[in-house]
Amino acid sequence: MNNTVLAKRYAKALFQVGKEENALDDFNKALAEMAKLHAEVPEVGDVLTNPLYPQDVREKVMTHLVEALQAPTLMANFFNLLVQKRRADVLPDIAQVFRVLVDEERNMCRGTVISAAAISSDLNDKIKSTLEKITGKQVVVANEVDPAIIGGIIARVGDLVLDGSIKTQLKGLEESIKGSE
Length: 181
What we know:
By secondary structure, the chain is of the alpha+beta class. The protein contains eight helices and four strands; from the N terminus they run H-H-H-H-H-H-E-H-E-E-E-H. About 25% of the residues are buried. The protein is elongated.
């Protein structure tokens, strides 16, 4: 079974429990922190997933991580279950799927706005408002700066991409000139 299917199963089950316990935010935070740790510290991922380490060592490491993150008891049990079932490698995927489920529950989506230079908060608010009108959802916007786009912005929300960059317009102009030759 591939990791995506497993991640969805675990995330959906955990989502249901979190919803019943009214702890979606706590669960989301614990999952995000553990996934971040898993991704940013390669040794953690290695110890939790490598079969060369004895099972009891992997469980002790997870116990220490859970204590350090001060994860809720249910999340501690969940993390320990993943180690016992040798599914700790799926943890980042579970965190991602869980976040999407929480966002859907709250009618939210996440987007990225890429600009050639930093944009003002007023312009950012206008872009956010426009994206919310288009998607019909509350949008959480992350900003990125990429001087390569020359000017304008590129807004991405899920599958929706609104590209108003100068770079793309110049490419389109170049294609139309080449096509007319």
